[in-house]
Design goal:
Layout (H helix, E strand, L loop, with lengths): L19 H11 L45 H12 L2 E6 L2 E6 L2 H10 L4 E2 L3 H10 L10 H10 L5 H4 L3 H18 L5 E3 H18 L4 H23 L10 H27 L22 E2 L2 E2 L2 H6 L12 H32 L1 H15 L13 H13 L5 E6 L3 E3 L2 E3 L4 E5 H4 L19 H4 L20 H18 E4 L9 E3 L3 E3 L4 E6 L19
Parallel strand pairs: 2-10
Antiparallel strand pairs: 1-2, 3-7, 4-14, 5-6, 7-10, 8-9, 11-14, 12-13
Helix pairs in contact: 7-8, 7-17, 8-9, 8-12, 9-10, 10-12, 12-14, 12-17
The chain binds protoporphyrin IX containing FE (HEM).
Organism: Streptomyces zingiberis
Keywords: Heme, Iron, Metal-binding, Monooxygenase, Oxidoreductase
InterPro entries: Cyt_P450, Cyt_P450_CS, Cyt_P450_E_grp-I, Cyt_P450_sf, Cytochrome_P450_Monoox
């Protein structure tokens, strides 16, 4: 099934300006004083509707010590941080010449994503740019009836009881990677962990989606996907010309997507011809709430996500997904799962290498609970410190750090008028660092996620997976994966920063990357050695 993106009308066109009212607002915003919602947990829509709307200030970066001003195009993080410090809850700026309103108050964001979600959709730059590639899959679907149907059908395949069945594959793939490290790295040798983790996450997601039975096709899929992702990554840094213009890179992109689609067709064909009778009744993905029926196993064999999606039935109309839509969804799942989890893993180990006392606490927990055996799903509950390390990584280095919405109709947020057509920008990197909600936000402190310290926190101040009906469908999958991978690696390896290595800074791309990648010295460890003992012959923990 060939991708159709060159035949579509120009997808990356800048949306129409928001009209005279928006220009008037921009003008009044220029003269406005910074505005902050008076109550941190406050009323989502602020002052009474009859009150005059409060102006939205336009972000005007001030000079830094060296005399320069941060610009969004060259220093996105610096620009946004400075504006958030100065304006707090809400401000506006221009993104590729288009007016954008930034929301940075948890209640306001909640109103857009949850309370008044029917007033907003995804017909907005960030998603329009990639729609020619991701097409009508969940990530880029603008919203509405097709979206709701797809989400309803796919949700059961991502329930905790179903994800639990994928845990073994996640640990297995990680163990396979670590076994290879025994050959690949001498103790103390520097490894490119960003690269290692990008291969690992791709192996995990293709195994989960397509199971082990289709190894060769999965490898071709992974190669085509990596090429797609590289070209898309470059496109995001400079999104011109639109993807509909057939430049050599865009042609390669189209070919790579065609190769991915062909692989998915093979997977589907393979699944259809080998599908056992009990799967044809459409029950597989619909059940599974209790982890007994509908779990991804058939006669001891693994059932993959693809099978679950192929068999998904809409509870409202009784229909299933057509093949074209299935292709789109598979692509969206891989894209959603790949860079986000890769970056989260890379950040986790970078931070641990910089914070030996946190690493030591993690090792103590891992060694005590696992006592040398590989982790299972049952260990997730008994390793709360590891879970907190994951949560704190997702706070400080939230990989899916920015998302956008378009206002379909006028709204009032925190007393500010949001005109119909306005582009709304939200950024969890900023939100997760607001000092009003986070004590010492620049400090990596997993214990801020203990139940006691979480108790008084604003309930919408943490949203690495978004919120509302479009919250990440893979949230549970990602948390299980990150937790299991952390336990499996921490049990066998530790990492140190090479002498003289400069601090790794966040690099803002579509997702938030560790700039320059994570390169650390790899050292096998022995259980209970506090990270200093000699490795076993194959780098495995010596119990
Ligand atoms: C640390 C890892 C991950 C993070 C931080 C993350 C974050 C997010 C966020 C913030 C959104 C919402 C975007 C918005 O509202 O505009 C989202 C959506 C989505 N994510 Fe994830 N994600 C992660 C892992 C995954 C995984 C593992 C999968 C699949 C297995 C996945 C699949 C998706 C899909 C399909 C959507 C679109 C959902 C919808 O609109 O209905 N993500 N993700």
């Amino acid at each position: 099934m060939a991708p159709r993106f060159f035949r579509q009308s120009a997808p990356a066109r800048t949306p129409a300006p928001t009209g005279a009212s928006a220009r008037a607002e921009a003008a009044s915003g220029a003269a406005a004083r910074p505005s902050t919602d008076p109550s941190p947990s406050g009323s989502p829509s602020g002052p009474s509707p009859s009150a005059a709307p409060r102006p939205i200030p336009t972000a005007r970066p001030s000079r830094r010590a060296d005399g320069s001003r941060p610009r969004f195009s060259s220093d996105q993080v610096g620009f946004l941080e400075q504006a958030a410090d100065r304006y707090g809850d809400i401000f506006r700026f221009r993104l590729f010449g288009m007016p954008v309103i930034v929301l940075n108050n948890p209640d306001h964001i909640h109103q857009v994503l949850v309370g008044n979600r029917h007033k907003y959709d995804k017909e907005v730059l960030l998603y329009k740019l990639v729609r020619p590639v991701l097409r009508n899959g969940l990530i880029t679907n603008p919203g509405g009836a097709l979206y709701m149907r797809q989400r309803r059908m796919m949700q059961p395949a991502f329930r905790p009881a179903v994800v639990a069945r994928f845990g073994e594959g996640m640990t297995d793939e990680t163990t396979r990677m670590l076994d290879a490290w025994g050959e690949r790295y001498r103790p103390g040798e520097v490894a490119d962990l960003s690269q290692e983790f990008s291969e690992l996450t791709l192996h995990i997601v293709t195994r989960t989606l397509f199971s082990a039975q289709v190894g060769e096709t999965a490898r071709r899929f992974a190669a085509a996907f990596t090429e797609t992702n590289d070209i898309l990554g470059r496109f995001f840094r400079f999104p011109f010309p639109p993807l509909s213009v057939p430049t050599p890179a865009h042609r390669r992109l189209r070919e790579a997507i065609g190769r991915m689609d062909a692989c998915v067709s093979e997977f589907i064909e393979h699944s259809t011809t080998t599908r056992p009778a009990e799967q044809t009744d459409g029950q597989t993905a619909q059940a599974g709430q209790d982890g007994t029926s509908g779990s991804p196993s058939r006669g001891g064999q693994d059932i993959d996500l693809l099978h679950l999606l192929m068999n998904a039935v809409d509870e409202e109309d009784g229909g299933s997904m057509d093949l074209e839509q299935l292709h789109h969804e598979v692509l969206n799942i891989v894209v959603g799962a790949y860079e986000t989890t890769t970056n989260a893993m890379a950040w986790t180990f970078q931070v641990l290498a910089e914070q030996p006392e946190i690493e030591a606490r993690l090792h103590e927990e891992v060694d005590t609970v696992l006592a040398g055996r590989p982790p299972t799903m049952d260990d997730l509950r008994s390793t709360p410190y590891a879970r907190r390390v994951v949560e704190e990584t997702l706070r400080m280095y939230s990989p899916a750090w920015q998302f956008m919405r378009r206002a379909r109709e006028e709204d009032t947020v925190g007393g500010h008028r949001i005109p119909a057509g306005a582009n709304i920008y939200m950024n969890s990197y900023l939100l997760h660092r607001r000092p009003e909600y986070w004590e010492n936000p620049e400090v990596f402190d997993p214990d801020r996620f203990t139940p006691e310290r979480s108790a008084g926190r604003h309930k919408h101040a943490y949203m690495p997976f978004g919120a509302g009906e479009r919250i990440c469908i893979g949230q549970h999958f990602a948390l299980v994966e990150l937790h299991l991978v952390l336990l499996t690696i921490a049990q066998r390896y530790r990492f140190t920063r090479p002498a003289g290595q400069p601090p790794v800074k966040p690099k803002p791309l579509t997702t938030l990357h560790p700039g320059g990648g994570v390169h650390l010295e790899v050292r096998p460890r022995a259980t209970g050695d506090g990270g200093t003992g000699l490795p076993g012959a194959d780098g495995r923990a010596a119990s």
